[in-house]
Records
---
Amino acid sequence: MSEEAPEIDRFLALVAAAQGRDNRLTSIQAGLLVAAELGIAHDSRDFARKLGIAHSLVLRELNVLAEREGVLQIVKRDLERFRF
């Protein structure tokens, strides 16, 4: 078994727990919050690459989170990525 498997399982458990606390969160939104909290990813492109999902989906979900007060703050926007 890979050493990454326990980390992946932990990440997924934390994503599920975040969704359990706030049923409005999509899996991607919860994943973004967990990744930011754990320091796994600090920008949208890195998150998309690490999870193997389209960057455009990540950007859409980040914008939804940023619209919700106090959930996530976008600290920098540029042509390629958003930093959170």
Note: The radius of gyration is 13 Å.
---
Amino acid sequence: MTAYTERTVTDPARLLEQLDECRQTGVAVVRQETTPGADSVATRVLDDEGNTVAALSVVVSAGPVDLRTIRPAVIASGLAVSRRLGWNPSVGVKQAQS
């Protein structure tokens, strides 16, 4: 796997752990793994059947912003977009097939 920065996850086992966490929480956090000086928080956007159809991400300068403070707003925004696409919590979230 290609390392874009010195913080890029290139260990397959670690990457699988992170992907599992993303599936469980619906959130991905990246800390300078792709671009030096940039951190991001992303969440999934769901369609009316609970399938992930898009992602919503906020990218900030690394360091001055505590990502825990923007995480709730990113999640709320992803849920709002999902609801506009017809998703309802009673539908749940379908897991992608590996």
Note: The chain has two helices and three strands.
---
Amino acid sequence: MNRDDAEELAVEQALALVGGRNQARDRADDQARGLTGDQARDRADHQARDRADGRTGDQMPHNQNPGEPADPHPIPHATPSPPASPAPALPWDRARAVAARAGRGGPLAVVRLPLDRALGHVLAEPLAALTDLPSFDTSAMDGWAVAGPGPWTYEEGVSLLAGAGESPIAARLPDGTAVRIATGARTPADTTAVIRSEHAHVDEARGLLSTRRPVVTGQDIRPRGQECRSGDQLVPAGTVVTPAVLGLAAAAGYDALPAVPRPRVDVLVIGDELLAAGLPHDGLIRDALGPMLGPWLRALGAEVSGPRRLGDDAEALREALTSSDADLIVTTGGTASGPVDHVHPVLAALGAELLVDGVSVRPGHPMLLARLAPDGPHLVGLPGNPLAAVSGLLTLAEPLLAGLAGRPAQDAYRALVHADVPGHPHDTRLVPVVHRAGRAGGRDHVAPLRYNGPAMLRGIAAADGVAVVPAGGVRSGTEVEILDLPWAPATPWTEGCFT
């Protein structure tokens, strides 16, 4: 028996074990869809793994603790079999790459925003200086402007102030003379140096100024163009406008900035079981995603409407999708294949193009990315479990929004992890972590956080990053890829109930 036959037999046995559909019918379905043998085996393998784990989507076996690998021999659950996917789930890194390319698929719009409205936007063009900075020689300190060697004569009651304009003494300073000067004031021509007030000695009786320290030519003078010359590039296109960028732009002469408009996002919350207020009761649970998604998406540079709750209503979902004028629609729940999971059927009815239909990542496996029309908008379908939805945000929404907003996508980096981190047997795992400073000369590292089950938010609430754990897990003391979350904790976390 060759390797392909052995794999196919293993898949057939797994399907038979959990009451899967007839394999011959699956092969007929695959042939009708034009799937190759490898694609069909990949699809069947993913379905077999999900069924053999005793869950659909991101449901965990009832006896599995958060963060632990799945039981290899769970009790089968009587759950409906999902329909055959048109293609196997994408690996996590490939799914992120597809989302990033989709975001960069079209030309970026450019608007000119006044400085007081540009904060948080992305520069559509490089920011070039409109003037020299500083635009004239200025005093860096309160003190005395002097010309030539000392001691220097001065005129009592005469001083140069910032913004005072031209005066005969400001135009030129003869050798052997001094004049009081304020920080930011224009230095007269032929000024040798500025002597700080605390370093100067004034002999009022003789009308002479001397210094307690040697004078170096040019000291405490900011020469014209010290920071930049007119036309110099200050910051490149794609830079996020921060308060400091606003200050630099104002100093360089700008009243408005060329910016990329923020992508507009609609959030659709799906599920009849969700409450908008009060305590859970009678099988109803609080909607955790509606309050979370808006601020999270805004932190990614989007302009977000208030969440719209649709329930499990296919027609309401269809109407919401066709009437939206957003650049991106984010849905929560309904991405699997249960009796009230309407996202796939509605997208199919609308003729949407599925760019990503399932990702080999836990939690968040049944996430999806679609394009509703050739020129947009896009739709990111998040699973309904809260941490699984966060996984979808990091995997698909973040790189897509980075492209739409004109900002660079976040690059994963590597960090040392303290503690073993279990992995999924086949898929990538995203695990909340918190950064810790090294002690006694040790390296900085990350610590994995508990409460990382698909339905839990307690771990991610304490996290400042997410570890990308490969299949099989990692051992303590090794390096893992880290994605930063779009905020930093207000208070440093300490070892405790979260770790």
Note: The longest strand covers residues 152-160.
---
Amino acid sequence: MKKWFIAALFTCGFAHADMLDALKAYENKDFAQAQQQFSALLPLGNELAAFNLGAMAYQGEGQAPNLTEALAYFMLAADLKHTQANDLLQKLLQNATEQQVEQAHQRFEQLKQGVVIVATDLDKPRSDSLPQPIRRVNPDYPAEAARSGQFGYVKLRYLVDEQGQVTAVDTIDAYPQRVFEKASIRAIKRWRYEPSGQKHLMTVRLDYSLGVGVNISAVEQTVAEHNLWTYAIAGSPQHQLALGMLLSLVDIQSGNGFRYNPELPLTAAADFSIFKKRADLKPTFDGFWGFAEVRVNQDGVITEELKTEFEARSEVTSLVGLTLTGKIETEVYRLHRRSDLQNRGVSVTPAVEASRTMSGLYWWEQSAKNGNVHAQRIMAAYDRQWEDYLLAQQDAEVLAWAGSRLILEGERERGMQFLEQAIAQNYKPAAEMKKQFM
């Protein structure tokens, strides 16, 4: 029978088990090791691991052929949205007895209970009330990075105390790594916010580029030179992580909004044309506060609200029938005006529909599901499921920031326990966080 495994490129070594290690073990016919590592990826909702375990069970690789077990794994792979699993499952079901199908369903339910990461909508506007910045210091552009023309970004999280002082800072992700992080942390520590009488956990992203934004062609060239797209498609977690960072960079720098439609097929090649800047529009109305995604006609009239989240202070509670002015270049636009940016008006940006494969978050998620710890930590900042998973792994970074959040939410005892555990693992920001909560 045809082998169903995705071909992988084994170009890098990793200190921990991941999808490439599992595929390499399979290619070397070390089926026991391959089975162990595929199984370790199942809790992460890894559809390819489930699919491959089904193929091994069916083909009798490292075990006696077992149609019931194969059916259960293919059921799980289909449930996790593997593109080929359902078609193959239907073919195999034709050769299974009623007893085998019943046993397979029971085994599938057992396997499904072990999956701790499930697909979720991460594209949600932030609506929490945060203190207002009263001083922001721009980071120094590292001299070596400036000389070599390097561009990039750093996303950080930090703790602001009751007086508006920034106390503890760390990075969530950065591209390239170990270039802009120190300058970013030094700058953030000098930021000041309006005193609120409360502590706040906050995030910010600092972009670094020389001239007018990041050159999209330079990003495209970087992807090509390092074969990032090829290796990411092949399943390399490290390349998926790097590709996610670059796509995240150009996503923000392009100035467009993006709608990564899960109904669109995954693209086999990168399409950087989506990042071409389109014209922003302007509202002809006042009083809007919040976030909205709307459909407009060629005259700029809003005909439909696709997503809306009005802040309590918003005088506008319906956008249908209102008008946006400017050059209409797409059907969908995003309106955004937050209370923590009171001096800014309503921003209206084009919402370009694209495949998920052009989203940095998509590749971070693939990298995380394929076992990359750095990507898992990034995902933990967006998705509570990944936070819970890494808390179970006693990850010091996640323990510290989750601990601080829990204390702010009123779960002081549990939060302090997390901070103590992070300190015991020598995660430096944890000690500063604990000091703030004493």
Note: Confidence is low (pLDDT under 50) at residues 1-16.
